[in-house]
């Protein structure tokens, strides 16, 4: 367990793997924590210096008031890399984490060696959905949306066969401060990188669960089409968080991708 006070923000992070290995930054999704990348972090730590962290307002990282933007959250990622003395890193992100990763590839391409964009899109809308979700959370609390969110994160078969994992992620959601979730959701609501995808110049792998209804395979196809040279892998029998639901398949796709760089 490690914490850093970076530009006034307490950030919880973890570094695994040899210090001399290529850095790999893992960015988690809205409402989760760096633990959603735990299987990949462990598997890849032999060949990478794996850096995981909790986004502001998530996990054990400090929350801040007000709406967040992708630029703000991408800045947090760069500040952490600066704190750790990392000039350039491979970057992988899921959902909101994937939007942050896209932002880094577009606005700080010199800092990014490659991108893995999991179950994400250049824009996740419509905006009214996020406003309605925020209103529901403020009215009835985080617990009122847990079942609906879990049904998007995981397939019914996984929830039935691995209830302990699904319930653990549900507990994580329930405990998250409502305003911290809403602040981060504003970054998703307002983000749209569709017109700038062509500026991503690094090798890119797009991953998507075949049963993802939040950012479906069609959105992944659009990312692949918009990013020069991008590759696409569809993870079978997975919804929005394949890193948890199908960890071996995600790790295998990432290992194959990195081997080809």
How would you describe what is shown here?
By secondary structure, the protein is of the alpha/beta class. The protein has one domain (2-259): Rossmann fold. The chain is built from eleven helices and eight strands. An eight-stranded mixed sheet has the order 1-2-4-3-5-6-7-8, with helices on both faces. β1 (2-6) and β2 (9-16) form a beta hairpin. α1 crosses α11 (247-259) and α2 (70-83) packs across α3. The protein starts with a strand and ends with a helix. The mean pLDDT is 97.
Descriptive tags:
single chain; 261 residues; alpha/beta; Rossmann fold; eight-stranded mixed beta sheet
Strand content: 15-25%
Main β sheet profile? 8 strands, mixed
Name of the CATH homologous superfamily: Alpha/Beta hydrolase fold, catalytic domain
How helix-rich are the residues, as a percent range?
Answer: 40-55%
What order do the strands of the largest sheet run in, or round the barrel if closed? 1-2-4-3-5-6-7-8
Task: Classify the secondary structure makeup into a structural class.
Answer: alpha/beta
The name CATH uses for the topology is Rossmann fold
Q: Which runs of at least 5 residues are low in confidence (pLDDT < 50)?
A: none
- CATH architecture assignment name: 3-Layer(aba) Sandwich
Rough outline: globular
SSE string, helix = H, strand = E? EEEHEHEHEHHHHHEHEHH
Query: How many domain regions?
Result: 1
Task: Give the termini separation.
Answer: 31 Å
């Amino acid at each position: 367990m490690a914490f850093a006070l970076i530009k006034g923000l307490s950030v919880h992070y973890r570094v695994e793997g040899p210090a001399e290995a290529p850095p790999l930054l893992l960015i988690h999704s809205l409402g989760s924590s760096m633990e959603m990348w735990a299987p990949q972090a462990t598997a890849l730590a032999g060949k990478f210096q794996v850096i995981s962290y909790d986004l502001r307002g998530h996990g054990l990282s400090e929350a801040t008031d007000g709406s967040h933007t992708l630029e703000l959250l991408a800045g947090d990622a760069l500040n952490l890399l600066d704190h750790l003395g990392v000039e350039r890193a491979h970057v992988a992100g899921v959902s909101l984490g994937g939007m942050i990763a896209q932002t880094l590839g577009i606005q700080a391409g010199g800092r990014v060696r490659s991108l893995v964009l999991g179950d994400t899109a250049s824009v996740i809308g419509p905006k009214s959905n996020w406003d309605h979700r925020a209103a529901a959370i403020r009215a009835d609390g985080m617990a009122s949306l847990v079942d609906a969110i879990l049904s998007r994160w995981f397939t019914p078969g996984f929830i039935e066969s691995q209830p302990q994992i699904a319930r653990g992620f549900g507990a994580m959601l329930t405990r998250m401060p409502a305003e911290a979730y809403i602040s981060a959701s504003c970054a998703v609501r307002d983000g749209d990188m569709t017109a700038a995808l062509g500026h991503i110049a690094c090798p890119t792998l797009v991953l998507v669960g075949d049963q993802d209804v939040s950012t479906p395979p069609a959105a992944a196809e659009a990312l692949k089409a918009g990013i020069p040279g991008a590759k696409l892998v569809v993870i079978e029998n997975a919804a929005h968080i394949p890193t948890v639901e199908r960890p071996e398949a995600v790790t295998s796709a990432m290992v194959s991708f990195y081997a080809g760089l």
